[in-house]
Automatic annotation (TrEMBL):
Source organism of this protein record: Urochloa decumbens
Name used for this protein in its record: Formiminotransferase N-terminal subdomain domain-containing protein
Superkingdom of origin organism: Eukaryota
SMART domains, alphabetized: FTCD_N
Signal peptide location: 1-36
Keyword Signal: yes
Amino acid sequence: MAAATSYATHAMAHPAGQWAILALLSLHRVCLPSYAVPNENPTGSGFSENPKLICCKIYISESRNKSALDKIDEAARTDPENVVVLSKFGDHFYNRVRYTLVSYISKSQWTYSNEGNISKLTLEVSSPIRAVLSRMVNAALTLSLESHKGTHPTIGIIDDLSFHPLGEAKMEDAVYLAKDVASDIAGSKVPVFLYAEAHPERKTLGAVRHDLGYYKNRRNDEDGQWSGVVKLNITKTKPHVCLTGNHDEVLPKIGGTTVGATPFLEGYNVPVHCKNISKVEAIVKKLKERLGGRGGEGPPKLLALALCHGSYVEVGCLLDPNHLRADQVQDMVKQIAAEQGLEDKVEKGYYTDITKDMILINLSKALFEKKISKAGAASDVCKEPEGENELLKAAK
């Protein structure tokens, strides 16, 4: 019961979290042994022994190539006992897919070392999610940007990975794990650009993308499609993680990737029935001005893009639920659209991922279903043959 109890202080902050606690308690009572969880640096195996959780959202620039997607999906599910795929969102128009994975921190320990007269303090962080992400990256890198076309911009086949601490995990756990994964990706000749808490100066994702030319050069204004190989501007922003001596080398067919650590962000899109993307971009600009900032303190509350989506344009958003709600974004988009004479063009938005309140519930449900499935399989294996039961009855 210790692990379930360790989630309580975090989950009780939201009504949905209370249901998550009940689910976790039931989960442990029905099908998990009870373990004592250390107060610091848990080193046990499995979700039941580790109150530190880590979430990673990986965005891959492909949603139409079924054979490639099947390989990526298979890689994502290679360790279901330790890494849970909580959600998957693919969009045909964007030609982009996002996986939301959750695992646990199996080790989080500070170590001291001396290099000459300099003492060095390093946090060693381990998680099963690292190996799964490596497999997903390798599967995705069989793709090429030469044939890529979609309405969402990208800097590479592996466009972005964002790490988010959950449960008792701290931001520093997410930062060090993000940097380790960035090194793994760089080993495949993909230059990595860090952002947010993983960045040396805590530069935001939007700022890093802007410096790289993320929003320029490859979009066809007639249909809003971004296509072809990537040409990154690395004169202003050098890769933070790359193979030795390859700072200026970006393979056009693969591109680069961004890796960051942030609080958990929620995806929320608002459709605007207007084919003029410039008008929706004007809405996005005002939206970020009115809701995006924190007075110069901390990362932005909102990231937003205008994205063509079939017969209309969407305001695609990532928002920090600790500071901003989806209904506030919805109302502000409607207000700004009305100022431009588009008040009747805004539809009700939709979430593109699970919300922060639902993470523990979905995770508990997934783990519960896996345990019940395994228990059922074990029961079938151990069941005595019907004929033998009858013989035992006759013997009595």
